[in-house]
Each structure stands twice: as C-alpha cells, then as structure tokens.
UniProtKB/TrEMBL annotation:
It is found in: Nucleus. This is INO80 complex subunit F domain-containing protein. Residues 7-19 have a biased composition (Pro residues). The keyword ATP-binding does not apply. It comes from the Eukaryota. Residues 1-36 are annotated as: Disordered. Its main location: nucleus. GO terms for cellular component: nucleus. Keywords: Nucleus. Residues 38-84 form the INO80 complex subunit F domain.
Amino acid sequence: MTSGKPPKQPFPSNPPPPTDNGFQQASVQYDPEKNEQYRRGVKMLHERCKSIQRHNERVVFRLHSVKRLIKTRSRDVEMLKKRLDRYQDNWRCAPEKTSVKLEESKTEEKESD
C-alpha cells in the first residue's frame, strides 16, 4: 500500500571528504581583495544604519515632546475657559483678534485714499 509520497532517495555513495573542522570545503577560491571590499561595504552599511537609527530616535523624542506640549496646552486652555466662565466674563462673545486686525487694515486703507 502506497501513501502517494515519492520514495526517499538514498544518500550519495561518494560524498566529498570532510576537512579538518568537519565541514566540506567549497570549491570557491578565496579572494582577499574581494573579502576586504565586502567588509568595507558591510561596515559602511552598518554605519548608515546606526545613523538612521539615531535620527529616528531623535524624531521619536521630538514627537513625544510635541505631544506632551499639546496635552499641556489643551489642559491649560480648558482650565482658563472654566475660570473665565466662573468669573462670568463674556469672553465667548468677544470679537476675534483676526477680525479686529482686518477691520483696522480696512480703516487704514480708507484713510490713505
């Protein structure tokens, strides 16, 4: 009875002889100049990765700082709104500063004509 799997292949009868350390020796020639090129390339790549990682850490730190500032500002604005409401100050009906500046500039233009 067969399971549908192919039969296992036996190991080759003549494997290459192992070297002193127990591993088979590759037939590739050792080129010290090419090895040094790879070593320099890996070192440059490693330095670039470290540089990118430092930059990313700075960006993350700045992001956390900005989030903290935004949270503090929002809390301060809410506290100020509550305090002004407690004093029954009519601050919600006050004209916006930008609209006042626009009116002033329009008035200056009319005077200069």
